[in-house]
Structure formats: C-alpha cells, structure tokens
Design brief:
Elements: H1 2-25, H2 31-54, H3 58-68, H4 81-94, H5 99-123, E1 130-131, E2 134-135, H6 136-141, H7 144-148, H8 155-170, H9 177-190, H10 192-208, H11 215-240, H12 247-264, H13 276-285, H14 295-312, H15 317-325, H16 328-345, H17 351-358, H18 362-405
Antiparallel strand pairs: 1-2
Helix pairs in contact: 1-2, 1-5, 2-5, 3-4, 5-8, 8-9, 9-10, 10-11, 10-16, 13-16, 16-18
Length: 406
C-alpha cells in the first residue's frame, strides 16, 4: 500500500499544472475546488479498494489477467474487457505496478471525468443554479455513487473519463479536437453504444439547436456524426452480440438471455413484466429506501431521492417551450440520456448492475434539468429588467410632462 500512497502524491503533483492551465483558460475555475474533488475521489478509491478486499471485484480479475495471461501488449488490444487490460499492461508488466497502485492510477483517470464534466456544466450555464441555497453543480460533482463506481481498475473509470473529455470537446468542437478524439476513443473501446448515442445526440443537437451558427456548419457536423455512427454501426452490433443481418431477432434473444443472467446475479427485479414508464423509473430512480439491497443501496437511495427531486423540476409546462429553443448541448444531452436509458431497460434486471451502469449517464439528465432552471432564471431576470426599464421610462415621461406643464 506504501507504493499506492506515494503514487497518489505523485499524481496530485502531476495534476497541478494541468489544473493551473484550466484555471488560466477558464477564469471561473476554482482550482481549490478541483483539488478537493481530487482528494474526495481518491478517498473513494480507498473505499473501493477496501470493498474489494472483502467482496468479489472485477478489478482483481483485470489485474491478474494483465499480470499472468497476456504475452505481449498488442495481444490485449481489443474493445471491451481486453482494453482495460491493454491500458494496464505497460504499468503492470513494464513498471511493476501492483494491484493497489493500479487501482489508484485508474481512479485518477476517473477523476478527470469529473473535472471535464464540471467544466462542461459551468461553461454552458449562465447562472449557478442553487439547491436549497447550495451550488447545485458542486453538489452533483460530489455525489458518492458517481465516485464509487469510477474509482477502481475497470470499465467504469475509463468510460466516465472518456465521456467527460468528449462532452467537453463537443462544447467547442473547433478548438477541442484532441479532447473529442481522446474521449471518443475511450468510449468506443469500452462501450461503443455509448459513443454511438452521443454521436447521434450531437447530430440532432447541432441541427436543431438555436445557436447562431451557419446552416452549412450545422449540417456538416450532423453528417459527420452520422458518418462516424454508420462506420461503427456493424462493429457495435457485433460487440453487443447481435447479428448485423438479423438485428431484431438477435436483440430479443440477447435481451432475454441478459435478463436471465442479471436476475441470477442477485438483487434481481422482474422488469420483463413492467411497462416502459416503470422500467425507466426503475432504471433511473431505484433502489429506493424500501428495496435497497445493502448499505451501498441505502446511500444510493439518498442519491436517487435527489434525482427524483431534480427530475420533478422538468414536469412543468414551460419545459416543452424550453426544449424547443434549447441550445445544442442540451438537446444532445437529452437525446443521449433518453436513448441510452431506453436501451438499458431491455437488458437490466439487477439493481446492483443498474446502480453501476446508470452512473455513466445521469449527469446528462442533471445537465438538462439545471439548464432548464437556468433558462427559467434568465427569463425571470429579463422580465424584472423589462419591468424596471418600463417603470424608469414611465417616470421619465411623467417628469417631462410635468416640466412641460409648468
């Protein structure tokens, strides 16, 4: 464990110039807050490491296979599970990192997902939305379930970092190509369907967004996203275990098989008989306090209560009006959240798996909600300004009339 402690201190030092550059680029970035997030995330790395000492964890299998199975680095290069081991290979085989060190190294990668999601939120909102008087974005960045499942050697940390880099890059595509390429690459190698949904969402968002961008640029981005989506489509189906020549039948077969597997894993819920709205509710907001399977489930239940509260904010007639005029990033986030949620509900039937998988997409829902709240506040400020200007103008006219009457 001493090696892991030394590594964490080195990683903290390496992070400082990067965070400093981000602070110079974005004047509203608080490096102190991001450093707090670093130590908070590393704490959850310790929590997950402790959890793995007493419970079966995929991280142990990733490490052992990397250490004992692969003969050379290129043998491990493949999408999915193998990619985790490919990333770990040079550290384990060439630099001699032990299990503890690999856990915290991957935890550090997950930390950057939070950094870039934080930047994505902050630069796409005009105000700092509040939750009971506290900054909502800061609260979202410290949700425990989000940190727990992105703080270990495994797919969770890598895909979360990939999504963070990707959405940050998409906020300003012309200037952040390296972020988009790196984030898209991580997404594709871990879970191609996530990249597929984000690309489709990006295309929809840029075409339907209300930004003052030349029409040809909107369609250029949309067609680019569509072209990449078509390029990865067949690989995506094969990766997910579907027959590209008979998608519907293989999807039904694989969904039924996955449902049986997940139910047999414990904490199963029979979602096969649920209506679509209840399936979505289960995926988004369960477990609740009454069906939490363990202490982790109780912590997640508190987080889910926050999700329910935030989601209730969009159950408002103004939301339909807002989504019609929403910017591209909001529409992209909505499409990504809904499309991935719909696909997940057909294969998820185990609360433990649901808790882990939904952490990858809940920030998209939260972003849509607080962007809507931001729009509402903007309208309230604008209306107050209009009323104030009208009153000032009326007072000016009255003064002129009074002076003219004299």
């Amino acid at each position: 464990m001493l090696g892991a402690v030394i590594l964490v201190l080195i990683l903290f030092g390496v992070s400082q110039p990067i965070l400093g550059n981000l602070q110079r680029e974005h004047k509203w970035v608080k490096a102190g807050l991001l450093n707090q997030m670093f130590w908070y995330h590393m704490f959850f790395g310790l929590v997950y490491w402790t959890y793995s000492q007493f419970n079966r964890s995929d991280s142990g299998q990733y490490y052992l296979k990397t250490k004992n199975y692969w003969k050379n680095w290129f043998d491990a290069y493949s999408a999915g599970t193998d990619f985790v081991e490919w990333l770990a290979f040079p550290w384990v085989r060439w630099l001699g990192f032990n299990y503890d060190m690999m856990m915290f190294l991957t935890t550090w990668l997950g930390f950057w997902g939070f950094v870039y999601f934080y930047l994505f939120f902050k630069e796409n909102l005009r105000f700092n939305p509040k939750f009971e008087g506290y900054d909502a974005i800061t609260i979202f960045m410290f949700l425990p379930n989000m940190h727990f499942w992105t703080a270990s050697l495994g797919k969770g940390a890598i895909i979360f970092a990939g999504i963070g880099f990707l959405v940050y890059g998409l906020s300003w595509p012309g200037k952040r190509i390296p972020h988009m390429v790196f984030g898209g690459y991580l997404c594709y190698m871990i879970r191609p369907h996530i990249l597929f949904a984000i690309l489709i969402g990006m295309g929809v968002g840029f075409v339907l967004g209300r930004e003052k961008v030349p029409l040809y640029q909107k369609y250029l981005v949309a067609f680019g996203a569509l072209a990449v989506s078509l390029f990865v489509y067949e690989d995506l189906l094969i990766f997910l275990g579907y027959d590209p020549n008979n998608v519907v039948a293989s999807f039904e077969e694989e969904s039924a098989l996955n449902s049986q597997r997940l139910q047999s894993a414990g904490s199963g819920v029979d979602m096969g008989s649920y209506s679509l709205p209840f399936k979505l509710f289960t995926f988004w907001f369960r477990p609740l306090f009454i069906d939490s399977p363990n202490i982790i489930g109780l912590v997640v239940s508190m987080e889910n209560a926050l999700y329910i509260y935030m989601f209730s904010k969009v159950l408002n007639k103004d939301f339909i009006k807002y989504i019609q005029v929403a910017p591209a990033m909001v529409k992209m986030s909505a499409v990504v959240f809904i499309s991935i949620s719909l696909s997940m509900t057909f294969v998820m039937s185990n609360l433990g798996i649901i808790i882990r998988q939904k952490s990858q997409i809940m920030y998209f829902m939260l972003f849509v909600v607080i962007a809507f709240m931001d729009w509402q506040k903007t309208n309230r400020v604008r209306k107050r300004a209009e009323i104030y200007n009208r009153i000032v103008e009326e007072e000016r006219i009255n003064r002129e009339l009074a002076e003219a009457g004299k």
